[in-house]
Each structure stands twice: as structure tokens, then as C-alpha cells.
Amino acid sequence: MKNKLICNVFAEKDSFTVMIRLSDKQFQEINDDVSDEAKRSIAEKHPGGDGGWIHLRVQEEQQLEDAMTIVRRKVMSIP
Questions:
Q1: Residue 23 class from Cβ within 10 Å (0-12 exposed, 13-18 middle, 19+ buried)?
Q2: How far apart are CA 3 and CA 61, in angstroms?
Q3: Rounded-to-integer distance, Cα 75 and Cα 18, Å
Q4: What is the pTM of this model?
């Protein structure tokens, strides 16, 4: 497998932020599997190509579950 960027993780005190890029299609595929908070992040994504970048701040378990769902989708798309 080629080297591929999956996400960036920025450590903070008592939390961390995940920055990840997905295509619009990938965002649509996970829409039913994430919280309303994650959906807002997706709706406000920074556009790029056929998708965009989102930042997810993880401080609580639901936010961690959202981040893991999104990262899993990204990993599944790597050939």
C-alpha cells in the first residue's frame, strides 16, 4: 500500500482535534451514522476538490465515536 494521509491529530489538554478530508460521497455515506454535532461540522466543512476538510474536537465519548466512524470510512476508501 502507498503511504496515504488518513488524518491529522492535534493534541490538547484533556482533548484532541482530528482534521480529516473526505469526498462529498463519503460524507453522505456516514451521515446517518454520526451525531448532530458531527453533521454540523460536515455541513460547515472547508471545501476542497470534490469534498472537504472537517475538524472534530474530541472531549467526550460520542465525539470519539464520531471520529472513529469517520476515520473508518476514510481507511475503507484506501486502495
A1: middle
A2: 29
A3: 14
A4: 0.90
